[in-house]
Amino acid sequence: MTQPKNSIDIRHDKILVIDAANRLTRMLANQIRDWQVFTVIHTAKVRPAELAAGNYRGIILAAPDPEHSELDPNYDLYRSPELATAGFAEAIPEALLQTDLPLLWLIPTAAQVEFFRLIELSDRVSAVFYPVDATVAQLTANGIIRDFVLKTCGCAADWSAENFIEDTVTRLRAELGSRQVICAFSGGVDSAVAAVLVHRAIGRNLTCIFVDHGLMRLNEPEDVERVYGRGFGMNLVCVNARQRFYAKLADVVDPEEKRRIIGAEFIRIFEEEAAKFGDADCLVQGTIYPDIVESGSAGGKLVKSHHNVGGLPDNMQFKQLIEPLRWLFKNEVRSVGLALGIPKEQVMRQPFPGPGLGVRIIGAITEERADILRAADAIFREELAAAGLAYEYSQYFAVLTDMRSVGVRAASRTYDYTVALRAVRTGDFMTAAIAEIPYPVLHRVVARITGEVPQVNRVVYDITGKPPATIEWE
Predict the structure, then answer these.
(1) pLDDT category, 49, cuts 50, 70, 90?
(2) Predicted TM-score of the model (pTM)
(3) HSE-up of 419 (CA within 13 Å, CB side)?
(4) What are phi and psi of 253, to 5 degrees?
């Protein structure tokens, strides 16, 4: 199967952001996109040919955070105490010195230097020092980085959801023509936006296959049919494969194995359904930029595999993979969705992983355990909505742990499951802070879950950020 090209099919001005083990790199890249300038993230191992092919207007190099070693072999970039005073030009990777592009070097330091002191190293290389505990908002507050992007590099601030839609629809029409295309429609925000985008380009030549694997949220299959089948008039095929997935997942407890099994079974079902549509040989997926970066496909370290990135079977029957959102951060995907006319309650809904509740059920997956989690998760979302908090947090959901504990119900001893609640705030879903849900709301959630879901007698709240944890539990 032909994979999407690694070359950037974005015609707008671009800034290359080099990630040398710096915690702010991805948030900074996203911030620059908020200034309507496109960014691409790469490690310091970038090659001169890649720089030339990318048609970049400038480069931002974020030096390693102090907790990293003197030389990180994954990034080929030195860090030393002397960087604060002299000698930092020698630490810049050779490929970056071989170009004529403007280079801004961001250096975290604990040295006693003026905040955001700008030191000129040459005609095209400059440096910004900043405190090691600075946020992206603090890093960009004085306008130096924005001026570098817009003035020094001369980037046009024309990267927008509307322009992305226009460019992508034009490209897809030319690329796909009258070919029959299948969309892997999970019901989540990413796949929905990808589907509507491709539908705008090729209309009825797109068939969306929604697989109910028994790991969806409460009433989700019905919502998909209502909004996208009837609302947008898409060719939507709904496949009830619950028992097929439960059988495949029986006794599987390893999270990566769950992802691989679910991903492989998804593709097999897509292939079976595609065979019913004759010459459909293209598969559309809702892969987004964090998927690419965190799966190691953008030069970084592998954080996790995804059924739409790292877990695809090698012998897929489709000839071409179409990933129209592969360069977008989550917030950009939502902006594109709203611009496409998708209802706000769908666009702003909670992110949902491709494997669904399969990676929110710790341990073995059964239909009974899926039903338990479905009920608890629905209560959590209902109570946040009732409190006016539905759009307050970036992501929130329930997890069914594999821990059981002693409890009391109706004056009788119980030995039932523990449900964990998770809620975070984040801009790019690559780092996240805990969401401080008001205790009265949490009390109502706990009372309803333990009162309405008979198999649960204990609820805990996860207050771990990302890092060290990921947002999902598995």
Answers:
(1) confident
(2) 0.77
(3) 29
(4) -120, -20
